[in-house]
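Support request from a user on the community tier.

User writes: "When I paste my C-alpha cells into the form, the page sometimes reloads and wipes my input. The last time it worked, I copied everything first. Here is what I submitted, just in case something in the input itself triggers the reload:"
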C-alpha cells in the first residue's frame, strides 16, 4: 500500500472532503487536501532529514493524509474517531497490521489536549500538523468578523519548519503581519500546540524553537 494509492482512493478523498465541509460550516480554517498534503510533505521532510527509512516516510505520509478524517464524526475527539476510521479503511485495503498499528497510533495522538508523541511517526505528524499556519487557510472573507484563529492564520505571511545542519534543532520560523494578529494572539491559541511540538521534537532527538519576525520566543 503506497501513499500514491491512498491519495488516489476516491472513498478516502470523499471522507476528507466531507469532513472539511463540516469544519467549514463550523467556521474553522481549511482542513482539506491542501492541509493534509502540506502536512504529508512537512512530515516527509522531517523524517528524511533525520535519516529515517523510506518505509517510515511512506507510513508518515499516509498517516498525514488521513489524520483529520475524524472531523467527519465530530470536531471533538476527532483524533480518536479518525484513528478508528483509518483502521477500518486500511484493514479493508489489507494493509500490513504493523503499518496499520503505527498509523492508527499516530492519528490518535496528533491533537493537543490528549495527544502524546509516542513514537517518531506520531512526533513527525504532530510537528507537521501544528506548524501549518498560513493565510490561505482562512475562509472567512469578512475581516471585520475574524475570530482569533482567522486572525492568527491570516497574519502569517511566511511559515517554514527547518532543521539545522547538525540535526539538533528544529525551528518554526514565522513572519507575521501584526496588523492582523499579534504575537499575543498567536500564543493564546498556540501555546499548547507549541508545548506538544517541543515534546514531539524531543522524541526524535531535536530541540524545538519558535521564531516570530526574527525574534526567538521559545
Ligand atoms: Fe487534527
Ligand atoms: Fe490537521
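"...and here is what came back when it finally went through:"
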Amino acid at each position: 500500500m503506497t501513499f500514491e494509492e491512498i491519495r488516489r482512493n476516491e472513498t478516502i478523498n470523499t471522507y476528507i472532503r466531507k469532513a472539511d465541509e463540516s469544519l467549514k460550516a463550523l467556521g474553522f480554517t481549511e482542513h482539506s487536501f491542501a492541509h493534509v498534503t502540506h502536512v504529508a510533505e512537512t512530515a516527509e521532510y522531517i523524517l528524511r532529514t533525520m535519516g529515517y527509512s523510506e518505509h517510515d516516510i511512506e507510513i508518515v505520509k499516509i498517516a498525514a493524509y488521513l489524520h483529520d478524517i475524524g472531523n467527519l464524526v465530530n470536531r471533538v475527539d476527532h483524533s480518536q474517531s479518525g484513528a478508528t476510521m483509518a483502521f477500518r479503511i486500511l484493514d479493508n485495503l489489507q494493509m500490513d497490521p504493523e503499518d496499520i498499528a503505527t498509523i492508527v497510533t499516530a492519528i490518535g495522538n496528533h491533537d493537543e489536549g490528549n495527544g502524546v508523541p509516542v513514537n517518531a511517526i506520531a512526533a513527525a505528524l504532530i510537528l507537521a500538523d501544528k506548524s501549518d499556519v498560513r493565510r490561505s487557510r482562512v475562509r472567512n472573507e469578512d475581516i471585520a468578523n475574524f475570530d482569533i484563529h482567522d486572525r492568527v492564520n491570516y497574519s502569517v505571511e511566511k511559515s517554514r519548519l527547518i532543521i539545522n545542519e547538525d540535526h539538533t534543532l528544529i525551528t518554526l520560523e514565522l513572519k507575521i503581519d501584526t496588523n492582523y494578529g499579534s504575537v499575543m494572539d498567536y500564543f493564546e491559541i498556540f501555546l499548547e500546540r507549541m508545548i506538544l511540538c517541543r515534546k514531539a521534537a524531543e522524541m526524535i532527538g531535536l530541540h524545538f524553537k519558535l521564531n516570530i519576525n526574527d525574534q526567538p520566543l521559545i
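Agent notes: The reload is a front-end session timeout and is unrelated to the input. The first helix runs from residue 3 to 7. The CA atoms of residues 20 and 31 lie 6 Å apart. Escalated to web team.
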